[in-house]
Backbone:
């Protein structure tokens, strides 16, 4: 089992460009999450999907959109990247949002120039 | 709005020492309090967790102490080793969503 995988590992964008971060899990989990990690800020929830077909905003959703493509995959899209979105992005999954621990992917380091 | 406050930001101990990391929370509806360990270039991994009806939980060298009335909880690492050098995050869960503390960078010198 690969667990939670994320692509790409690194990305450099120019201001205004768009991109999609991909996440997939092979643990048959129902819930998936996107976080961003910034120095001194911990991890902050961007969006989450409690189950296939549902998505909800987290603490910092502005400038992002998500798609729960199927049970395995949850993508994060930046429509018009801004320097403030320079961060490390983590995807996570859990069997059930209200009960179980979250498993994290290896992260995507994004720089917006 | 930061609902979980973690201290200290960084901590340096000698091998065998007992580093202690503290967290305080505001929302009394939090129902689960995990600690995550993160090594450079990796994603966070669950270390140990506690529910608010328990005052202490121990797993190997790691212990969580929980004080519900003070709305505080802490992580103790017994007999710390250089391999414990990492960033540690406390977190609290409400309605299925985790709120993380700011993180503590722990360095254990040989």
Residues:
């Amino acid at each position: 089992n690969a667990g939670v995988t994320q692509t790409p590992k690194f990305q450099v964008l120019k201001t205004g460009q768009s991109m999609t971060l991909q996440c997939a899990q092979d643990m048959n989990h129902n819930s998936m999450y996107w976080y961003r990690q910034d120095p001194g800020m911990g991890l902050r929830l961007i969006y989450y999907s409690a189950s296939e077909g549902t998505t909800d905003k987290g603490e910092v959703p502005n400038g992002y959109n998500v798609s729960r493509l199927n049970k395995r995959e949850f993508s994060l899209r930046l429509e018009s990247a801004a320097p403030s979105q320079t961060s490390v992005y983590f995807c996570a999954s859990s069997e059930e949002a209200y009960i179980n621990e979250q498993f994290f992917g290896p992260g995507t380091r994004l720089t917006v120039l | 709005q930061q609902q979980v406050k973690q201290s200290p930001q960084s901590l340096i101990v000698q091998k065998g020492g007992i580093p202690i990391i503290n967290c305080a929370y505001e929302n009394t509806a939090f129902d689960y309090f995990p600690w995550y360990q993160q090594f450079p270039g990796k994603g966070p991994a669950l270390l140990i967790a506690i529910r608010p009806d328990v005052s202490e939980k121990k797993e190997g060298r790691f212990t969580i102490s929980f004080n519900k009335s003070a709305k505080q909880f802490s992580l103790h690492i017994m007999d710390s080793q250089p391999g414990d050098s990492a960033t540690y995050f406390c977190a609290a869960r409400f309605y299925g969503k985790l709120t993380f503390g700011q993180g503590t960078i722990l360095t254990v010198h040989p």
Q: What stands out?
A: The radius of gyration of chain A is 13 Å. DSSP finds no helices and eleven strands in chain A. Residues 69 and 75 of chain A are 7 Å apart (CA to CA). Chain A has a mean pLDDT of 94.
